[in-house]
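User: Structure with glycine, tokens only please.
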Amino acid sequence: MKRRKFLKRASLTGIGVAVGTTILANTPSNKVNEIEENLLTNTKENFPIVISTWNVPNATKKAGILIEEGGTSLDAIEKGCMIEEADLNNHSVGNGGRPDRDGHVTLDACIMDKNGNYGSVVYMQNIVHAIAVARKVMEDTPHVILAGKGAEEFAISKGFKKTNLLTEASKKAWEEWKKESNYQPLINIENHDTIGMLAIDKYGDISGGCTTSGLAYKMAGRVGDSPIIGSGLFIDNQVGGATATGMGEEVLKTVGSFLIVELMRQGKSPQEACEEAILRIVTKNDNYKKFQVGYIAINKKGETGYYSIHEYFSVSIYKDNNCINLPSDFFNKTK
Ligand code: GLY
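Assistant:
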């Protein structure tokens, strides 16, 4: 189903469009409809704008305000993602993230700027703000990826504080899991919340970022899609950007974010490109019912798209001083 139709139906039935209650609590419903319409209108300049995976109003608003005030999309992405990394209640990102099967919280993150520069950290421990370290890798080293201990030591050399990322809550959940140690690398269809964020600033420049603690109770050493250029994130400032959430192995195997940007380059809308990238996964996997993948994309005009395999994926969008949470259309309509 095309997104416009989907949103229209959701609005009419009153079941689909979840307005970010924190931020839009006082926004009249006609204003919400206007924001929705604006987001769907094929205007020439639909920016500045920020879109994030999942319902993350605080992070999206932080980034949105920054670009509204004239900041760059790169700063907005870094500062926005940092909000989620510091949030102890978000168990898929940064501090308080779920550990691997051995009890180690390991973080993956990457950032990409308008010039096609990219920095990433993989399998980094003991540092909260993986996205900020990724930016330092991009700006202060001749490399693009730092891994493990090297990434941690680099972060410390740049002034980042060493922190134990395994909170009491995550430790308790891990100890509970250990009782059965039922290792099934399945990402929870409803709740997995790797944060991917894309922004276009007032100058029309696109940046993106992605940050995660990855799959809960993964094998030690496992790295997902999020820090890998072209898979978890890709930006081409002439075309657009895309980022992913969900089962990283499937995104990696289809180089999902690069695929979406290249499809947009060929003329597809962000929505069409996201749908095709999801189709690429489900047609290759008989077991797609067992995992979730969600994509978001933005093109140079500021048009957005988002699509997932299953229900319950959603996006946060900041535009014109408002932040809304919208449910994504999805592939698997069977219950
Ligand atoms: N998409 C995040 C991960 O699989 O680690």
